[in-house]
C-alpha cells in the first residue's frame, strides 16, 4: 500500500496549480482505502501482484473518489469523513470538474496501458452504480420499496464497485473467466454485507443508543425498516410511512422510528442477513488455495461487518 500511495499521487500530478492543491487535499483526507486493498488481496490469492494490479487499484480509487465528489454535490453535503467536502470549499462547479478530471485520469490510465479488460469491468460497475442511485431516487418518492427491490438497489449501488475490485484484482494476474467470476461474486456478497452494516448505523449502537437518522432524513427505506414495516398491519404501516415522510428532523422523530424498527425485529433481521452474506463470501473464498492473502481477505471481510464507522 505504501508503494501504491506513491504511484497514486504521481498519477494525480497536473500543471494546473488549483487542481494540484485540490489533489493534495484529497490525498491527505483519504479513507480506509478498502477498495484498492481488495484489488491487491484478490490478485495475491491467484498469482503474483504485477504493475497491472497497481493500475487496477489506482483505477478503482480514481473512480471511487470521483463518485464521492459527485455524490457530495448531488446531496449538497458539506462534509466528507469529518472534513469539508470539495463543494463546501471550492463550490459545486469546481467539484464537478474535479470529479470529471478523476474519471478521465482513470480512463486514460487504462487506455494508455492497454488495460481494456480492467476498463470494461470498471465501466460496468459505474453504469450499475448510476442505475442503482436513480432507482433508489425513484423509489424514495413513493416509499414503496420491497425487499427484492432493496437488494437490486444495493447490488447495483454499492456491491457493484466492490465486486469490480475483486474481479479486477484477479484479472490482473490470471485470465480464467470462471475464477474471475467467482471473485466478482465474492465481492458482490461482501458489498451487500457492507451496505447492510451501513444501514444499521442509522439506528445507533449499543454504546450510545442514539440513532443517526441519516437515511431517514433522505427518505431511504433500508433493510431494517422494510422488514419492520412488513410485520405490522396497514394502519400502523401508514402511520410509520407518514413519519418517515415528515420534514421535522428532531431527535424524537428519529427515536420513534428507531424504537419501531427495533421492536419489530428489523435490527436483528438485518444483522442476521448481513452475516448470511458474510458466510456466502467465505464459502466462495474457501474454494481457493490457503495463503496469507486469503487469510487477510477473510479478516477484511470480518472488519466490514464489525466496523464502527
Structural topology:
Blueprint: H1 2-11, H2 17-28, H3 34-46, H4 51-75, E1 79-80, E2 83-84, H5 86-112, H6 116-142, H7 147-171, H8 177-201, H9 214-217, H10 223-229, H11 234-245, H12 251-263, H13 266-285, H14 292-306
Antiparallel strand pairs: 1-2
Helix pairs in contact: 3-4, 3-7, 3-14, 4-5, 4-6, 4-7, 6-7, 7-8, 8-13, 8-14, 10-12, 10-13, 13-14
Summarize the amount of helix as a percent range: over 70%
Looking at CATH, the homologous superfamily is Farnesyl Diphosphate Synthase
Number of domains: 1
In one word, what is the shape? globular
The structure class reads mainly alpha
Plain-language structure description:
- The chain is an all-alpha fold.
- The protein has one domain: Farnesyl Diphosphate Synthase (Orthogonal Bundle), CATH 1.10.600.10.
- Helices cover about 75% and strands about 0% of the residues.
- It is built from 14 helices and two strands; from the N terminus they run ααααββαααααααααα.
- The chain has helices spanning about 1-10, 15-30, 35-45, 50-75, 85-110, 115-140, 145-170, 175-200, 215, 225-230, 235-245, 250-265, 265-285, 290-305, and strands spanning about 80, 85.
- α4 (about 50-75) packs parallel to α6 (about 115-140).
- The model is unreliable at about 205-210 (pLDDT under 50).
Amino acid at each position: 500500500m505504501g508503494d501504491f500511495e506513491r504511484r497514486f499521487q504521481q498519477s494525480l500530478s497536473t500543471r494546473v496549480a488549483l487542481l494540484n492543491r485540490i489533489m493534495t487535499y484529497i490525498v491527505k483526507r483519504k479513507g480506509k482505502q478498502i477498495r484498492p486493498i481488495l484489488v491487491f488481496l484478490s490478485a495475491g490469492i491467484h498469482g503474483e501482484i504485477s504493475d497491472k494490479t497497481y493500475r487496477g487499484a489506482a483505477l478503482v480509487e480514481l473512480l471511487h473518489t470521483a463518485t464521492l465528489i459527485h455524490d457530495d454535490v448531488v446531496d449538497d453535503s458539506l462534509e466528507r469523513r469529518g472534513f469539508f467536502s470539495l463543494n463546501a470549499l471550492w463550490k459545486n462547479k469546481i467539484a464537478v470538474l474535479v470529479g470529471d478530471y478523476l474519471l478521465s485520469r482513470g480512463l486514460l490510465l487504462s487506455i494508455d496501458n492497454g488495460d481494456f479488460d480492467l476498463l470494461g469491468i470498471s465501466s460496468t460497475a459505474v453504469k450499475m452504480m448510476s442505475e442503482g442511485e436513480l432507482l433508489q431516487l425513484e423509489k424514495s418518492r413513493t416509499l414503496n420499496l420491497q425487499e427484492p427491490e432493496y437488494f437490486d438497489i444495493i447490488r447495483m449501488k454499492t456491491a457493484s464497485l466492490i465486486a469490480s475490485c475483486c474481479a479486477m484484482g484477479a484479472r490482473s494476474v490470471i485470465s480464467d473467466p470462471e475464477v474471475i467470476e467467482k471473485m466478482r461474486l465474492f465481492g458482490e456478497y461482501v458489498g451487500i454485507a457492507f451496505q447492510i452494516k451501513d444501514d444499521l448505523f442509522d439506528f445507533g449502537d449499543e454504546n450510545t443508543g442514539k440513532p443517526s437518522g441519516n437515511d431517514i432524513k433522505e427518505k431511504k427505506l433500508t433493510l431494517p425498516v422494510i422488514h419492520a414495516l412488513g410485520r405490522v398491519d396497514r394502519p400502523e404501516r401508514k402511520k410509520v410511512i407518514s413519519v418517515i415522510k415528515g420534514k421535522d428532523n428532531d431527535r424524537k422523530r428519529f427515536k420513534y422510528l428507531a424504537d419501531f424498527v427495533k421492536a419489530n425485529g428489523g435490527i436483528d433481521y438485518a444483522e442476521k442477513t448481513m452475516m448470511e452474506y458474510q458466510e456466502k463470501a467465505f464459502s466462495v473464498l474457501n474454494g481457493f488455495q490457503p495463503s496469507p492473502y486469503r487469510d487477510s481477505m477473510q479478516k477484511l471481510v470480518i472488519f466490514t461487518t464489525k466496523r464502527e464507522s
